[in-house]
Write a structure and sequence with these properties.
The chain is α/β, with parallel strands linked by helices and 323 residues long. It folds into 2 domains: 102 residues; 165 residues, no CATH class. It has 13 helices and 9 strands. Strands 5-4-3-7-8 form a 5-stranded mixed β-sheet. Strands 2-1-6-9 form a 4-stranded parallel β-sheet, sandwiched between helices. Helix 7 packs across helix 8, helix 8 packs antiparallel against helix 9 and helix 10 packs antiparallel against helix 11. InterPro entries: 2-thiour_desulf (IPR007553), DUF1722 (IPR013560), UCP037004 (IPR017087).
Length: 323
């Protein structure tokens, strides 16, 4: 199965160089493995604007409605430099599919970054995104953005990879400017899209049918907008159960009563968070192989990203929101 090669901007301290404020490097196994299947672009905004390694603490300070990046020990405001670097960096880099940024960093953190009332105060008045991350959200509102810490959660990691590789593949489809390529993309992603949203699956299907005979460029633009809406949040467990039941329907005449019961038991265990989804889909895929069902074997639902990236290990955080 063909997978597009996504471009992912990664905080440089996550395995690329010892550029953390204290001179450390963080060896991240997920980033290392992803590098085999994606184009990784490392960046350390703080080093890029002239802050050394190691360096004195920088922090976010709220001035009115504006966040400023300041270095209290030097009584220095680096806001202007950071904004200029972010603008220049994004102007030059081209297409970007995703970001993996360092958590809690005053520049790269995407949430829970401490914001202070003034440079010398110890009182945190709010939490939010870092200054560089603010530019990420402004310039790439549809990109796949995560912190390295959250990606230790299996459900968050699954959603990140699914969205990342799906949107990268659609970028290739869009470049072809071909309705035939769009039809194939939609067909291969039918059950993956169903897991995310049946409503959006139907709307995207109507776009592909193109009964209004719209120009292909317009269809692709509208389809892309719909994909971003569909991937806005991870699917629920009940949605995956529904998809697996649909897939079971292809083999209703071939499965024995005991075999059907076994798959239903697996689904029950998955619903109860006792098994990963792959425990169910691997059985269903084996049936597609046995029955030589080429339509199902082409479904991205079984492998939305390179299987070598599959890792069911979970940090244990966020289990209640896991898919």
């Amino acid at each position: 199965m063909h997978y597009a090669i996504p471009t992912v901007v990664v905080s440089e301290c996550l395995g690329f160089s010892a550029c953390r404020y204290n001179g450390d490097i963080i060896h991240n196994s997920f980033v290392f493995r992803l590098g085999e299947f994606a184009r990784l672009v490392p960046v350390c905004p703080e080093v890029a604007i002239g802050l050394g390694v190691p360096r004195e603490t920088v922090r976010l300070v709220k001035h009115g409605e504006e966040k400023r990046l300041v270095q209290p020990s030097a009584n220095r405001d680096w806001t202007k430099e950071m904004k200029a670097f972010a603008a220049s960096f994004f102007d030059q880099i081209g297409e970007i599919d995703g970001f993996i940024l360092k958590s809690r960093s005053p520049t790269c953190g995407i949430k829970d970054v401490k914001v202070y009332g003034d440079a010398d105060s110890s009182m945190v008045i709010e939490k939010g995104a870092g200054l560089f991350a603010d530019h990420v959200f402004e310039r790439f509102p549809q990109a796949v953005v995560e912190e390295e810490g959250r990606l230790t959660n299996a459900a968050i990691r699954e959603h990140f990879l699914t969205k990342l590789f799906s949107l990268a593949l659609f970028r290739e489809v869009k470049a072809e400017q071909s309705m035939k390529a769009l039809v194939q993309f939609h067909s291969e992603h039918k059950y993956l899209l169903m897991a995310y949203s049946q409503t959006w699956l139907k709307q995207l299907g109507r776009l592909v049918a193109n009964r209004d005979r719209l120009p292909v460029e317009q269809v692709l633009d509208q389809y892309e907008q719909g994909l971003h809406m569909l991937f806005a949040r991870a699917p629920q467990r009940r949605s995956h159960v529904n998809v697996c039941q649909h897939l079971m329907g292809y083999f209703k005449n071939e499965m024995s009563a005991k075999e059907k019961q076994y798959v239903l038991e697996l689904l029950g265990q998955y619903r109860a968070q006792q098994l990963p989804l792959s425990s169910v889909t691997s059985v269903l895929k084996s049936w597609a192989i046995r029955e030589e069902n080429e339509y199902l074997l082409q479904q991205r639902y079984f492998a939305p990203y390179p299987p070598a990236l599959l890792d069911v290990r979970d940090s244990g955080k966020g289990r209640e929101t896991a898919v």
